[in-house]
Amino acid sequence: MPATTSPVQNADDGRGRLARLMAARLAVSLAVLCLALVFVGPGDGAEEAARGLYGTLGVAFLATVMFAGALRWVQHVPRYAALQILVDVSLVSSVVLFSGGCRSIFSFLYLPIVVMGAILFGRRGGYGTAILASAGFAAVVAYAPPSPFDTRLPDPMEVKVAIWGVHTGALLLVSLLSSTLAHELRRAGEDLHRSRVQLERLGHLHERIVDSLTSGLLTTDSAGQVRSCNPEATQILGGNAAEWIGKPLGSVIPGAERLAEPGAEARGRSRSRLTRETASAPVQHLGVAVSPLKTKSGGHDGHVVIFQDVTAVVELENELQRSARLAGIGELSASIAHEIRNPLAAISGSVQMLSKDAHGEDRDRLMAIVLREIGRLDQLIADFLQFARPAPPSFSSVELGSLLEDIRALATAEGWTVELDGVAGLEVTADEDQLRQVFWNLIRNAGQASGDRGIVRVRARVEREAAQAVRTGGRNAPVGGCGSVEVEVSDRGEGISPDRLDRIFDPFHTTKEGGSGLGLSTVHRILEAHGATVQVESVLGQGTTFRLNFRQTQQENG
Q1: How much is the pLDDT for 545?
Q2: Domains of the chain
Q3: pTM to 2 decimals?
């Protein structure tokens, strides 16, 4: 706003300023009255001047009351303000006139009027008020009779003019300073008003955003007590927001306080799925995320808790898992039926031939087929039971070198060559019988895949810091641990195509004629029970590598 623009153009703001002007006039009138009682006393020939002085003060009080009473009905505030300025100059001139003229102790009262004129009307108003006050003081200096309160000789006109000039300069200077300060104050006030309006808009926007969220939102202080929440939070939790304020976070969302513990975010625990009991449902599942509430300086001042009701999602997941289990049971049943039908067909045919009085070599050959297929069925049932209902591992310290030497002897008897590297002296915590089955299945598969073209290599090493993503049965799982033992079993066979690599751990999935398809599934189940992991890498025409990782912390599980 330019300095020449009147700041009382706003009616409400102008009325407020005028109210302050009236309060200032009342205070000044009271101060002048007190000074008059102290310094201006009646004396010889001073009764008329005293009556004029006190009369003027009475008029000032009366004018204040009248102006205050009429303020609410004022339509044109600037004119009303100008009228008050004119009245104030007149009253001060009257006080100066009756209290000593140019030597009056009350001549300084022109200065507050100039300041108020600058505040009400800007720079032009300040200068105009200063000129009006200067004219009033000039009239007093020119026409004031000798003061009965001053026993000194009357001042010559030159002295009076000098006094008037000094007062006028002071009034103009005060007008300049006060108008400049008023302008800066007004501009600061406008900036403050704009900032306040902007902050209010941002505050309203923030409230609308928070209220419009489809997720529940809670904030806590540094002590973990709830201090605000949005409407969706009350909708999800089914409570009263007023009752939560000041309560610990754990009493509102059980378990969420652990997500707000120091270091929870670094440990990956700032997000979790929590459950709580409600009156409407036995269990409510909540997906909860907790993050620090940061201050401008970068510190923390509590936490922000965002959550959603994921009960329907959990029920859908459970339904999908049930459907997957049923589908798996159906596929497993079909596979078992298929695997059993073939031996049964061979047994049935052989028995029929035997029933026709087969003799000699035919009888022996048919009996051999029956015994072979019965053994095949027995092995299939044993493998299936091992896969479907594995015995819980009995942990102990197992020396890998000795175990693998025994398996190498068995593999050599089968006609496969096994090379061991770095296995001597290594120990893992495992169930020795189950671990023996794991390595025998892997080495047997590798030997069968290699055939006459290569050998099976088993290499072991200790990894001091292992932290990597591995593929376990077509699934990615994190592994790691300080001092883990890694064992590789590799061959130089034909390899496994990428489209079949994801299914090698599925039950009854096999590429070998006569295989049950449960060997690698059993390996996966045993390693899973041991907390170990397996990674498979295969390149067509170059071979396959199974990489097993055993964490040394497994001893704690025993």
Answers
A1: 92
A2: 11-195 (no CATH), 216-309 (3.30.450.20), 315-388 (1.10.287.130), 396-557 (3.30.565.10)
A3: 0.42
